[in-house]
Design a protein that fits this description.
Elements (H helix, E strand, L loop, with lengths): L12 H6 L3 E4 L7 H7 L5 E4 L7 H13 L3 E7 L6 H15 L3 E5 L13 H5 L3 H4 L4 E6 L5 H7 L3 H15 L3 E8 L3 H13 L6 E6 L2 E2 H11 L6 H7 L8 E2 L2 H13 L5 E7 L4 H11 L1
Length: 292
């Protein structure tokens, strides 16, 4: 848990923490890559979400564009959006060909009904196709505030067990694994969750999902869509005041607390912020620039 207010955080920890940032885009946001490349360090990771399984070709094109801009693409591969082994093989080959992809984010995916034979991220790993296509590492989803859909059907321990299983697979097969979390709004749930991971022997770098600067109205909309948990309460409370709906909320305190956790509690493995630019890339990078 956090024991000091933000005012006690060392100022120089925030720029260092931000220098490791990654960012997430959709295929439709690939036109923002010139801006992203101009504002991020060469070789920084840009994740490419796949929200609609029909947009796979757009994702592949975005992967190629990210690589062409001197950045490292990390495409999402949701298991429930993959039809079969041939489908998985084709997309991994395309990622390698278009973007020299070395890391992917494997997910179960939010679809209630899988398109094919895969239901869980571990099933994608166990095919061995990642290694066959030059993938040297993978990310897995983390849920500091839980995932109601999973726990409702599989129980409270399912999320931890899934992380342990994937960590073991990575170790046994020489792959570098990491955790990328859902976005949230406060560091306290991250600290408590990371402590729980440590207690269960999970020791993987954690990229913490941070919403970029956006209006309260926008953040409330995304929080409702994505089922974000307890840390969103303060956003919802502000939304009750109509005059605050268009107020821009910036993650100063959240990022400051994460930076301090990364510095003071290395055993929690808080590695970097992973930004969701809900308010737009201009707002995000202007805020990053002012915080460095």
């Amino acid at each position: 848990m956090l024991t000091k207010p933000l005012a006690y955080a060392a100022i120089d920890t925030v720029p260092e923490f931000l220098s490791k940032m990654s960012v997430e885009i959709t295929a439709k946001q690939a036109d923002k890559l010139p801006l992203i490349a101009s504002r991020m360090r060469p070789g920084a990771e840009v994740f490419v979400a796949l929200i609609d399984p029909a947009d796979l070709e757009g994702q592949i094109a975005a992967v190629g564009a990210i690589h062409a801009h001197g950045l490292r693409p990390v495409p999402h591969v949701p298991a429930r959006f993959v039809r079969d082994l041939d489908d998985l093989k084709r997309r991994l080959e395309a990622f390698a060909r278009q973007g020299r992809v070395e890391r992917i984010l494997v997910l179960g995916g939010g679809a209630k009904h899988p398109l094919g034979s895969f239901r869980a991220a571990i099933e994608l790993l166990e095919t061995g196709l990642l290694q066959a296509n030059g993938i040297t590492g993978f990310g897995m989803a983390g849920h500091p505030e839980g995932n109601a859909d999973i726990t409702a059907t599989l129980g409270e321990g399912a999320l931890i067990e899934a992380l342990k299983l994937k960590q073991a697979y990575a170790k046994d097969h020489g792959l570098k694994a990491f955790i990328a979390t859902q976005f949230l709004f406060a560091a306290e749930p991250v600290a408590a969750w990371a402590e729980t991971l440590k207690d269960h022997g999970i020791a993987l770098p954690i990229a913490v999902g941070v919403p970029g600067p956006a209006t309260i109205k926008t953040l409330v909309r995304y929080a409702q869509m994505c089922g974000v948990g307890q840390s969103a309460r303060f956003i919802r409370k502000q939304a009750l005041n109509v005059s605050k709906l268009l107020t821009v909320n910036a993650p100063d305190a959240f990022v400051g607390d994460l930076a301090r956790l990364a510095q003071e509690r290395p055993e929690l493995h808080i590695a970097r912020p992973h930004f969701y630019p809900f308010g737009g890339f201009d707002k995000l990078f202007d805020w990053v620039g002012s915080s460095e």
